[in-house]
Structure formats: structure tokens, C-alpha cells
Amino acid sequence: MKRKALCGEAELTRITGQEESEMAKFMDVHSGFVGVSESQLRDAHEQDLAIEAAEGVHFERAWLDPDSGKVFCLSSGPSKEAVQRVHRKAGHPTDEIYELPIEVV
Amino acid sequence: MKRKALCGEAELTRITGQEESEMAKFMDVHSGFVGVSESQLRDAHEQDLAIEAAEGVHFERAWLDPDSGKVFCLSSGPSKEAVQRVHRKAGHPTDEIYELPIEVV
Fold it and tell me: Mutation test of the interface with chain B: which of A27, A102, A105, choosing the one with the most B Cβ atoms within 10 A?
């Protein structure tokens, strides 16, 4: 009886598409953005946002240090490869992508 | 006259301690945390939280990739050096700290 109830829940989750909790978080790092402006970073971020849905990815936030040229992007999605594909298609690929199963506040 | 007014504003800010908007954001990166658990990361984060006030720093969030051993900490504070001092005193120093004047959502 208990097992049946659990199966029902799993099925309900599948049917309603409530898979939010199955999404992993990722941080990716880009180098070489020395002197880039806020509007240039916004344009790059919007290129990701425009195509991310096809991969089930969402780029939540991006931070830039224009002195060192480092950019950090925080995203959620099904896999590291999916995050990488969005960045590659948007024209700013990186191989430095970390999955973040652990987060503390 | 104009100059006097500006001095007055600066003084008011100093007196009331309303320096929130003058805080910068930082991302720092640690390596070598392969296989670290959530509770170990939480302990390390709490060591920062316990002593950060003395430097006017706040560690907002930390993420860990236990496979690569990378940790990313997002903080706010008056300077990169202040962030570095807190981490050093808490026992997990890093030289890789980036100031993030630009953020997009």
C-alpha cells in the first residue's frame, strides 16, 4: 500500500513536469573579458537566455571582474554538457564548468 | 558652498554607518576540496561567519564541486584584502579573489 503511494507520487511528478528539484546547479568560469562593460556582459547573458530553453538550462546570474577579465555564470540545468552547448551556441564557449551539488548559506 | 555640502554628506554617511551601498561583491575560489561533505563545507563557512563582522565582510553563499574540489564563495565587503583576512584567520586562505563590480540577472 505504501509502495503504491510512492509510485503514484513519482508518476504525478513525471506527468506534471515538476522536475525543478532534479535540476543540478553549475558554475562556469570564462577568462579574457578584460575591460568588458556591463552592457556587453548583459548582451552576452541575453544571448544565453534567448536559446537556453532548448537545452532545459537557465542562466541565473553572471558576474564580471573587468580587471582580471573573469566571468562567473551560475546556472541550473540537466547536465554540464547542456550548459556547455548553450554557451557554445551563444558564441562564448568555456570548458571550465563545475557541477555544484553542495551549497551553504 | 557645493564642496561643503558634499563633505557634509560624506560625514553623515560615516556617522550613521550607512555604508551598505559602498560594499563591493567578491567571488573567491578554493581548490583541493575533493570529496568534502556538505557538513564539512558548512563548518568551514560557519568559521567565516563567526569572525567576518570584525572585517565588515559577509560571506553570502558557498558552493562546492566535490569531484573537482573547487569551492566558490560569494561575499560582500570593503575590500579584497578584508575578504582574504577573514578566510586566512578561519584557516582556509586563498589568493584567488575577484572583485565583481558588474552583475547581470
Answer: A102
Residue range of the domain that includes A71: 18-99
Q: How many CA atoms lie within 13 A of B64 on its CB side?
A: 20
Residue B82 within any structural domain of the chain: yes
The mean pLDDT of B23-30, rounded to a whole number, is: 97
Structural domains in chain B (count)? 1
User: What pLDDT is attached to residue B21?
Assistant: 53
What radius of gyration, in Å, describes the C-alpha atoms of chain B? Answer: 17
CATH number at residue A94: 3.30.70.3090
Average pLDDT, chain A: 86
Q: Are A66 and A35 in contact (CB under 8 A)?
A: yes
Shortest distance, CA A74 to any CA of chain B (angstroms):
10
Question: Does A51 fall in a domain?
Answer: yes
Q: Is ipTM beyond 0.85?
A: no
- A39 has pLDDT over 50: yes
pLDDT over 60 at A12, yes or no: no
The secondary element (H helix, E strand) that includes residue B94 is none
> d(Cα A57, Cα A71) in Å, to the nearest integer?
18
Question: Does residue B22 sit within a domain?
Answer: yes
Q: Which residue of A has its CA nearest to B72?
A: A27
For the segment B62-91, the average pLDDT, to the nearest whole number, is 98
